[in-house]
């Protein structure tokens, strides 16, 4: 079959791409600057004293009040940018028909869920910091594995449905085809969900999430509306690749390892900074709740440093999943046209350049994916 050519990025897509890079840099800098500001001005220490007053000096309530005040403060400072990036800009590019009330409610829900989860777990590292000031990072890091596992078990079933409706696929004929592809991949009784993302965005996407009994393939309704059944079969084949190749578990284990290293780095870095600037910060030990912005700052720095490596691993998984989907469906033409459709609908730039790839791309650029598909000879024959 003839090769599918990759269209040039539209002028609008290029504008969306360039402004997106500026926004990425601004958000990255804010992620460092805001915690640093709270530390060096002594505001974090003042916020802790205020929290301690409200909580009558009890340690766990102080921690929770501090967490609520800090989260509320950071949420408010970033609110104009959040509204611009998530709402105004998406509408300006015709990428969203979301109502403002849905946008606002989703952000509030996110904040509240973050606070509830935070209040449930924040005492763990602080208790360990108080009991074991030299090994707290190890115990906290070890506990991260069951925590990550629990999050992946719970999120698809209890958290994601708070934002969108998940249900069986509406198109039963297509669902039959999708389940046939799954059976072909050796995944019997795969759970495939359709989610009504059209209330939030015009973009198209699909993903695999969950572990054990909550494992599932989720297809956005926007994708089902715009891709042909053949293209959808390839997308499902790709997602099945993530599923069969165990990418969810690999990611949990790698995140766990990185968390251990990151916490150790934060422990060492905090020791250094506290010895030097403790006077200005208004606290001298990590066991003080006022240290939360310091931990945030050091962990953000760590994730920025390891970002290129974890993005490279993610792109590797995506290439593996693409190959899996091609071998499964044998339909290189539909795979390539699916990516061209994705490029148009998501205002993607097919060849974004090396710097973008290194620092931002969790998926290979669409141009590279189509080039690969055009040159690939799948194991299965086209149906
Ligand atoms: Zn993927």
List keywords for this structure.
about 375 residues; mainly alpha; four-stranded mixed β-sheet; 14 helices; 4 strands; about 5% strand; elongated; binds zinc ion
Task: Give your account of this protein's structure.
The chain contains 14 helices and 4 strands. With 383 residues, the chain is mainly α. It is elongated and about 70 Å long. The chain binds zinc ion. The site of zinc ion has 4 residues, from α9 and α11.
Mind sketching the topology for me?
Blueprint: H1 11-40, H2 43-54, H3 59-92, H4 100-121, H5 123-131, H6 136-159, E1 166-167, H7 172-184, E2 192-195, E3 206-209, E4 216-220, H8 221-226, H9 229-244, H10 247-281, H11 292-329, H12 332-345, H13 354-360, H14 366-375
Parallel strand pairs: 2-4
Antiparallel strand pairs: 1-2, 3-4
Bound molecules: zinc ion (ZN).
The site of zinc ion (ZN) has 4 residues, from helix 9 and helix 11.
């Amino acid at each position: 079959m003839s090769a599918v050519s990759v269209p040039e990025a539209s002028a609008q897509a290029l504008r969306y791409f360039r402004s997106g890079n500026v926004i990425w840099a601004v958000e990255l800098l804010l992620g460092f600057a805001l915690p640093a500001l709270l530390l060096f001005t002594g505001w974090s220490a003042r916020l802790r004293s205020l929290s301690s007053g409200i909580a009558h000096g009890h340690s766990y309530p102080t921690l929770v009040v501090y967490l609520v005040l800090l989260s509320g403060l950071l949420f408010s400072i970033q609110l104009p940018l959040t509204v611009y990036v998530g709402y105004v800009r998406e509408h300006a590019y015709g990428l969203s028909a979301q109502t403002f009330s849905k946008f606002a409610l989703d952000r509030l829900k996110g904040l509240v869920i973050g606070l509830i989860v935070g209040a449930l777990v924040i005492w763990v590292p602080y208790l360990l910091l108080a009991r074991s000031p030299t090994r707290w990072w190890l115990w906290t890091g070890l506990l991260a594995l069951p925590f990550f596992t629990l999050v992946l078990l719970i999120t698809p079933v209890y958290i994601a449905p708070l934002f969108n409706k998940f249900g069986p696929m509406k198109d039963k004929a297509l669902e039959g085809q999708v389940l046939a592809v799954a059976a072909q991949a050796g995944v019997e009784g795969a759970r495939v969900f359709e989610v009504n993302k059209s209330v939030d965005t015009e973009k198209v996407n699909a993903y695999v999430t969950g572990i054990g009994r909550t494992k599932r393939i989720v297809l956005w309704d926007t994708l089902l509306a715009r891709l042909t059944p053949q293209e959808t079969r390839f997308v499902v084949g790709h997602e099945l690749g993530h599923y069969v190749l165990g990418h969810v578990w690999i990611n949990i284990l790698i995140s766990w390892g990185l968390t251990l290293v990151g916490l150790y780095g934060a422990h060492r870095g905090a020791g250094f900074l506290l010895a030097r600037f403790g006077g200005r910060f208004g606290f001298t030990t990590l066991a003080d709740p006022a240290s939360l912005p310091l931990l945030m700052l050091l962990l953000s720095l760590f994730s920025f440093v390891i970002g290129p490596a974890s993005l490279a691993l993610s792109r590797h998984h995506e290439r593996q999943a693409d190959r899996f989907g091609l071998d499964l469906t044998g339909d290189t033409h539909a795979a390539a046209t699916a990516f061209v459709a994705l490029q148009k609908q998501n205002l993607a730039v097919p060849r974004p350049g090396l710097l973008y790839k290194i620092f931002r791309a969790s998926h290979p650029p669409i141009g590279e994916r189509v080039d690969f598909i055009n040159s690939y000879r799948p194991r299965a024959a086209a149906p």
